[in-house]
Design a protein that fits this description.
With 276 residues, the chain is an alpha+beta fold. The protein has helices at 3-18, 65-76, 106-110, 122-132, 181-203, 224-231; strands at 20-21, 39-50, 113-115, 118-120, 139-142, 158-166, 169-180, 206-220, 240-243, 258-261. The structure holds 5,10-methenyl-6,7,8-trihydrofolic acid and ligand LAUPNLSC. It is an enzyme of class 2 (transferase).
Length: 276
């Protein structure tokens, strides 16, 4: 059975059992009809996925991994913060009349910084280090730039990725301040796992572990019954991930550079309402 399912079920059960409701607080997020979107939240989930064993995708419902790749490609490859550069519609609610989500996500990844070796943005710097200084303990990205927060439509949630090569394994820690468990938990895990697989394949490493640290892991009130149902559902084996071995440059990966063989999942009959 898929390891990601086990982790997801354990996380959901933990939150439902030990989490705390914010019903007595004034909360920012709301539903499309204007009702406040309250949550049950738990502090400090730490999930460890060994990417050399299997691809961490859930089967309790379908994770739209190609759309998830498109979003992460928008941030890490296109370095755009305009929804006109994104094929899906998951960010439409947060964009202004020009399609911009402000100085968030992709914008931060595209800002260049000075180094002795020249000016580079955050992604280029990761690539430069993996190629030239893989033993470095300074390989990380960070989109949570306080200086620009006031100009972001939404503050970055999965905001930092630390890479570390040990032996020939490329490992990473994903730091996330806030996680909507139903909408985006596995979506985010799949995105950052694909980043590790892509970087590893392009620059000659074996995929190692992905550690996902979540400060505030929450289930929105209108999602509680849905996740309960999912957690009780049937689990399938994890599919096999294929990564195109010909791609030797991170920017050369597209959604077609990856294939999932044998992805089976439970039917899902709910419309997911996303709190705004
Ligand atoms: N409350 C909230 N939760 C989030 O997860 C979230 C935000 N807000 N705001 C910014 C982005 C937008 N995110 C989203 C929004 C919608 C889907 C979504 O509709 N997912 C569908 C499939 C979409 C597709 O096929 O492209 C799903 O079934 O998972 C996913 C991520 C993640 N982020
Ligand atoms: O990649 C993402 C982006 C967003 N989220 C969720 C986490 C929260 O439910 C909302 C953001 O609201 P805040 O009040 O700013 O925390 O979006 C996610 O899980 N993953």
């Amino acid at each position: 059975m898929s390891y990601a399912d086990k982790v997801f079920v354990q996380n959901i059960n933990d939150i439902l059992e030990h989490g705390v409701s914010d019903r007595d607080l004034d909360v920012r997020p709301h539903w499309a009809d204007g009702t406040p979107a309250h949550t049950i939240a738990l502090f400090g989930l730490v999930n460890r996925y060994d990417l050399s064993r299997e691809f961490p995708i859930i089967t309790l419902r379908r994770t739209y991994w190609k759309s998830a790749w498109d979003e992460i490609s928008w941030i890490w490859q296109k370095k755009s913060s305009n929804i006109h550069d994104l094929s899906g519609h998951v960010w439409d609610e947060w964009a202004d009349e020009n399609g911009s989500i402000g100085k968030a996500y992709g914008y931060q990844m595209g800002v260049k910084h000075h180094y002795p070796e020249g000016d580079m943005d955050q992604v280029d710097r990761v690539i430069w280090c993996l190629k030239n200084d893989p033993g470095s303990r300074r390989i990380l990205t960070n989109m949570y730039n306080h200086h620009d927060l006031s100009e972001m439509a939404l503050y970055p949630c999965a905001y930092s990725m630390t890479f570390t090569v040990i032996g020939n394994r490329l490992n990473a820690v994903l730091n996330q301040r806030s996680q909507d468990m139903l909408t985006a938990n596995n979506w985010n895990v799949v995105q950052y796992a694909l980043i590790v697989y892509a970087m590893a394949s392009a620059y000659g490493f074996e995929p190692g572990e992905l550690i996902h640290v979540i400060a505030n892991a929450h289930i929105y009130d209108r999602h509680v019954e849905i996740v309960r149902e999912m957690a009780a559902g049937r689990q399938h084996e994890a599919p096999e991930l294929w990564v195109d071995p010909e791609v030797k440059d991170f920017y050369g990966f597209s959604r077609d550079s990856f294939r999932l063989d044998g992805y089976e999942y439970e039917e899902f009959h709910h419309e997911i309402e996303v709190a705004i």
